[in-house]
Specification:
By secondary structure, this protein is α+β, with helices and mostly antiparallel strands. Strands 12, 13, 14, 15, 16, 17, 18, 19, 20, 21, 22, 23 and 24 form a 13-stranded antiparallel β-sheet that branches. Strands 35, 36, 40, 41, 42, 43, 44, 45, 46 and 47 form a 10-stranded mixed β-sheet that branches. Strand 28 and strand 29 form a beta hairpin.
Amino acid sequence: MTSGTPASPLVATNLMVEGSTECLMAPLSPSFGWLLDAGPSASAGQSFQSAYRIRLMDRAGAEVWDSGTVVADQQHHLPYTGPQLRQDSDYQWTVQLTDSGGALGSASPPARFSTGIFDDAGNGWAAEWIHRNPGGRAPMELVDGSLRVSGSPHLPWPVSAGGSTVITARFRLRLGTAGIILRSNGPGNGVLLELKPHRTAVLRMAPDWEIGAMTAPATEVVAETPAFEATPVSRAGAMAGEDWQDLVVTDDNRRITITIDGATVLETDVAPSTGTSTGTGIAFHQAPRSQSEYLSVNVSSDGKTVLSSDFAAPGALSDWNTATPLRQPDEWTLAKATFALRRPVVRARLYAAASHHAAFTLNGTPCLETTNFGYPGEHFYNAADVTDALRSSNTAALTAVAHWYGPGQGRAAGRPGLLAQLTVEYDDGTRDVFGSGPGWLVAEGPYRQGGYRNDEGDPIEHLDATAWPAPENWYPALSLGAHPVADFPVLAPNYAGVARNQVSAVELFTAGDGTPVADFGRVVPGRPVVEFRQGHHGRTVMLRAGYTLQPDGRVDRGKTASQNTDMTFPYTQKDGPQRYEAAVHLGFRYLEFPGVQMEELGAVGARVIRAGHPFEGSFHSSDHTLNRVFTLLRDSALFGAQEQFVDTPTREKGQFLGDAVNISYATMALFGERHFTAKALREFAGSAKRYWDSSEERGRYNAVYPNGDGKRDIPDFSLMMPEWVEDYYRLSGDNALLHELLPCLLDTAGYVLRHIPGSGPTAGLVTDLGGGAGPYLHGIVDWPAPGRFGYDMDCVARTTVNAQGWSVLDAVSRLCAAAGFEREAARHRDAADELAGHINARLRVDGVMVDGLYADGRPSLNASQHATSFPLSMGITPSEHAAKDAGRLAGMGMRQGPMTVHRLLRALLSQNHVDAVLDLLTNPTQPGWARLLEAGGSFTWEAWELEAGTDYSQSHAWSASVVREILEYLLGVRVTAPGASAVVIQPPVCRLEQASGSVPTQRGVVAVSWKRTADGMELECTVPAGISAQVVLPDRTVAAGPGTWRFTPRDGI
């Protein structure tokens, strides 16, 4: 490049560091990217980049690095190769481009970014991981006249029962088992009675465990009912399990007898044993994530009543110890520190990490939230620019509400911990660094232990406004040590940012019985925010969220309507006007206030929690129903991720691999999202290293990760990974992540090949693919089960699994080629071709694809829609069968579930059956999105139909995957080269009269509008600089460079 007057109008815009225009956590070696702008009058050669030059300066403008001229047309994922940057520092940079004709453009205006804290640098963090002493309010809560007891190894009764003891209790199961420890001297000591449904029971030695464990350890069994092991634990969740039962336990110190509802279910001698069962105490025991309820308990010793507790009576717990020294299953911690500021502040940054979540305020203003659900070594930190909060202050008062809630769906247990570092720069250039440590004060947060929402491990959040700690209840924080520590060895910057937007209820009305109900107009993942005009000290009000209403206007609390989840937000008020805001979100549409008068309520709203995305595309057509369906899909994709992709924001907040893949297809296509997908891909690759690294299991991935229950997989979920990586690479051009993930993908190809026998009845086909359990054994095919539409699960060589196995080999072959590994590419191409040959030869019977082969080689007699759509959508089906197979699919209507419906649409679109796709999208007389809309849905469901008695989710984004097909084939914009250097624009041939929209690609937004006229197709499109477009019209194909193009049937351009 040479200096002087620019000869080209080409300039870099939208300068990004690590994919963000406002990066506060750049790593030691950041990557750069930008978009191009050449103006409306640029020539074709002036609209493409052939080389770039980056100049990086410090905040004062002193040069740090000059890349020199780098010959490359890439615009993203470009590496920094200069001297080591300083952490926690500000930089600015410019880009000067050379166009494809060799002419030099102007340097871009400077863009700014900040580095984060470098884990791998010598100076690193100047902060310590802090926590508080375990214990506080016990997980026992009075609810509706009963005592709810939840996960804890030992909750002692206020009694010592020597001699001959009789215990009576009226109880019911809610989640897991109910447990009472006899003859106890403390935690892990005594004889444990555990009760399951159907009057089954076991007596075993009390286990020794700590909160944070996923299960209580097995111990020596003294006696059990015959069906105890075979009886499932209670999963009643939001609904009561069995009716109230009457329990009688008699223990004369040698023989224990258990009677339930008058029937003796267990009777056995239990001789005293020193150190294990010689105590006189009695205690509740609830295994991890379990919960039971008691109306009353009574104890007599040698005929004398020593305890009588009726939990519906006033003061029922006055004699009970309602505090525990053990860790709580739902631990809330307040932390605070105040720092003196020496001079006026010109720059301030807050960096923080927590397990599992923390929300910070600075000088009374909320400023940062941070979340970690992962395993040690897989944690993140977040950052905020807090300069404005300190600019006119001489103190920095920093507070945090930290929340740790044990293992659960989408959440590894970890341990409680909080890390914070506030860096302040003054007007004279000096700095202070204030880090968390023993100088901070901590206290138990004002939350009760309300029990569990369901058996997935999410606690009920019960804020008690009367329980804020008094000054004497604060004490110095405990320290785990300066970062890094064993439990938190690594912190990476979290670029997958969460958006938190306040919305108001669209209507506030009264139900038939006078209960106020707020309607938000659609399902949102939100934290309720409510203004109470007047509160009363100690009064508990019950906010209840829900998806649907009963005929009387009240929230429907039924099992199916609630996803078997307790969706309440109990709140204990203080006196006077007050504002309630929940700290944890649920998906819901309605919020009711039982026992509250309408005049007590002020504003009712919610803070919507969702993934933050950089852009948003659009789609609108001449079909009103299609537009409504697209809005449904858009909202579902938008709300299908919070801190991570989720199964559902209500019942199971875990990042399931299959769900993440489907939602990612939509978010990448519609919102230009990359960070959540890259994070998820790395996390699932991490699951492979953590759990699936043996030679027999390599190539598999966890079905959900991170997670509290450790190692588990679903085989065909694992097979989705290579396709997903390829789609990410196609859209992003991220070569570095491709190279990082490729070893895992090669292992997945090996996983497929290991399950192809060389001989026998199913030789040449993927057979009994290893992994899974129960209904997922050897493959899930589709889920929930009704979405299989009768698929023959008895096949050992399933057509769906074989098609996905082929897709693994096919994608790995292309990705190896993209990474420059030609030999591996050829090897996997040959393997894919061989498998395709066997699929087409063995699984097509009388011209129709069947569901698979049985163990003896016989073909299934069932020919499902899945068996045809999977191979056709992937390109396995030979051309001589493709048209007929597509016609067969079109004639079947919708016979695949939401989990796999994108494959059905892709299969039909591959053969230009666009009208059949429109039927699937818009026909309310068959299963699908239009019927869901007619049923009042505003978020896609887990299943097409909500079968009574199931807990199928009504906020399940996996069928939003077809956003990609709508943008690619109904709008007609397809990315055809990595990083969107090339696209195809092709309006469909179908019954639609018009469509318009936009697609955010890696190189900018492609906008398209087309309509069908009496003369033919009219199209207008805008192609960003740096993208080559091929416009495919019914009568011609045109190469179109950057700019705005108009095509008509008459003049062509």
